[in-house]
Amino acid sequence: MLISYKWLQEILGADPGVDAVTSALGRGGLEVDRVTHVGAALRPVVLAAVVGTRPHPSKKGLTLVRVDAGGAGEGVEVVCGAQNVPAPGARALVCYAPVGAQVVDRSGALVTLTEKAVAGVASAGMLCAEDELGLGSSHEGLLTVEGGRPGQSLLDWEPRLEDWIIELSVTPNRPDALGHLGVARDVAAVLGIPFQPPTVAAPKYDFARAGQASVEVRDGARCPRYAGQVIEGVRVGSSPLWARVRLGRLGVRPITNIVDATNLVMLERGQPLHAFDLDTLRLPVEIRMARPGEAFVALDGQKLSLNEDDLVIADAERVVALAGVIGGADSGVTATTTRVFLESAYFEPRGIRRSARRYGFHTEASHRFEREVDISGVPLSRDRGSALICELAGGGAAGEPIDAYVAPRAPRRLTLRLPRYQRIIGAEAPARTREILGTLGISIVAELADQLVVEVPAHRPDIVEEIDLIEEVARVAGYDQIPSRLPHVAAAPAGAKGDYRLRRRVRQICTGIGLHEAVTYSFLSPQELKAARYDSASLLRLLNPLSEEKSVMRPSLVPGLLTVAQRSQRYNVPRVRLFEVSQVFLARQGEAAGSSGAEGAAGANGAGDAGQQAPVERPPVDEPTRLTVLLAGPRDSYLTRPEDVDFYDGKGVVEAVLAELAGSVAPAFDLEGEPPPWAHPRKGARVTLDGREVGYVAELHPDVRDALEITSGVVVAELDLAAIAGAYKAPVAAKPSRFPAMRHDVALLLPLDVPAGQVIEVLRSTAGERCEKVELFDRYRGSELPAGTHSLGFALWFRSPERTLTDDEVDKWTKAAVDAAKARFGAQQR
Predict the structure, then answer these.
(1) By CB neighbour count within 10 A (0-12 exposed, 13-18 middle, 19+ buried), where does 308 fall?
(2) Which tens digits make up the pLDDT trace of 411-443?
(3) 316 to each of 22, 222, 281, 305, 402, how far by Cα in Å?
(4) CB neighbour class for 214 (10 Å; exposed up to 12, middle 13-18, buried from 19)
(5) Bond preceding residue 203 cis, omega within 30 of 0
(6) Of the candidates 628, 629, 632, 627, which has an alpha carbon nearest to the alpha carbon of residue 709?
(7) pTM exceeding the 0.70 threshold for the entire prediction
(8) Cβ distance 627 to 696 under 8 Å?
(9) pLDDT per residue over 364-393, tens digit each?
(10) Rounded distance, CA 174 to CA 503, Å?
(11) CA–CA distance, 640 with 579 (Å, rounded to integer)
């Protein structure tokens, strides 16, 4: 946002100085990016009267012009190539830059004038065009003015031509700072300058004219207030020099006096206006929703097919403007316009934002309407615009002004509790609290002991809670005025608690086994989820996403990590070892969308009804914390041919993690059950702890690999940390036995479809309490074995804490275990 210091001066009625203003803006939270001093080079330029002209003796097209620049003698003769030199004795004065003055050349650089000969004739300075003075882009002829005197400095004739342009970074929550009035209000509050908004004079009414427009607002939710005024007898032309220069320096192209008047009001008050050529309208003017496919031609010539969500301004026959965004090509002001209908309105911000994005527009008007304009100032801006049009283009207001306020809004009331201010800020509320609130336009309607009940003005939609009032007073009073004190902090038990401690431990474990942590977006695109084979019907979609690429809340960490693996492969980094610990977002089963999950806020913002807020509606969403591990590319190997990772690499990582997290509970891997959508249907397993499912580990589904064009092997493990924490059992310390262990090996002939894990479980559970562990150490397949079978070798370890076991005892327990395997799986001992 570009701000004119001279304009701020006019609104404040004071001259605090540029440095004081920029400092006040920064202290008040409006960041100043740059300050540019413009027009200083105009100081030597003076007004001059033409006293005589004659043709150049040797150069056709040049004229020798003698001007009276206020000095003694017969004046100064200057060589000039312009065709619009005023006749001697005319009232029009030209702008004379003497030797030593600086002018702007064709490249935009400042050059210092020296006396030189032009085609053999000396020229002491030059007569300047608008662009040569840095006052515009026109080079069609000399800049001529009226009302001054020869020899008068151009800056004395029009002081507004010298200015300081302040560039601000305005955050979206401060729409009031998109106009000079709002910025001046902030400056006055910070500097303690008495502030009174400039009085808006009524436009000049021409009661001899009976012009009147009729307006019908058909959608009060999207347009709660619409004001208008008919102005007749206007003459379209150029704006005065000060207006053209001011607009140009603030980044708005001057067009005509009527359009320039609407833009000046927008820059002054932050309220966009639009001027229609009344003779092109077929009354009444309607504010309504567009019909599906309705045609509209915008000011820039674009032909649009409108959406039924678009709010439009229409007459009895057609759409004449896309409300709050852009006007129509066939209803705007032209050189022949004599009757104008001026619009000032409040449009619902979200609807304007949707329409502007839908068609790729970002206009000065939509920028302000999207952030919300002052609904209470709509008629004042109409009157200000009408008066300025009458001043710049002549004519007069005709008929009664229109103000269709179809959905009135009550002022927002809040309570500021001074003790709470002290608790939040750490210092007492400043003595000038009431002055600060008043300067900001926040009126105090009641004082109750140590409370202030206030009404928030409509130009501050960002002030919605008591904490916002506290922030306003603190920022205006100055954050640097808040004393620095060490807070009184009670000693807390050492160590982190709950979920944070678990996450930290998981990170330590994963990094300890050679994994790298990734942090991916919480929002995904539908395409990423489709590639991972997720069903779109069960996804949680954002109502107003920033982009389609971030429009769905992630149901799993897997798609985000797959995108990282895909990108790594494209950058020729095939080996990927990643993990992520974060929330996923799942629709809660058995609850309707929109059910309330929030606590009421009654009484949180003052006494009585003042400032109370309705409970916040929260969507029924579960946010479990997951650990997801992704391995891709070749496994680590030395002096051997590299091989891609497979299921067993993922299984090993899961076992390593759970060995630290699950305590004395050993993980089991179950091949039964429905795999996740991303998992290979035959190369994965459910991970369980004490019979409770805690996750899944699998190779990547071939369809997912193809969709993402991943050529290397990928293994993914996804674990639920809450389920792991619930299954945790503390390890029990046991005195180690001083007696040796005895190992018995058995080889069992088993069908190929019998999982080795199930066999181990049966052997372990039936071998007696002296059996410490059972391990699979060998697998053999050969032609001499029956078809569909293989031989698995198991080692059974036995130990007693009291004595050395005998061979007979171990043989007996081993036989019991083998018999159980025979009965359960049809095994044969080899």
Answers:
(1) exposed
(2) 999 999 999 999 999 899 999 999 999 999 999
(3) 50, 20, 8, 19, 18
(4) exposed
(5) no
(6) 632
(7) no
(8) no
(9) 999 999 999 999 999 999 999 999 999 999
(10) 38
(11) 27
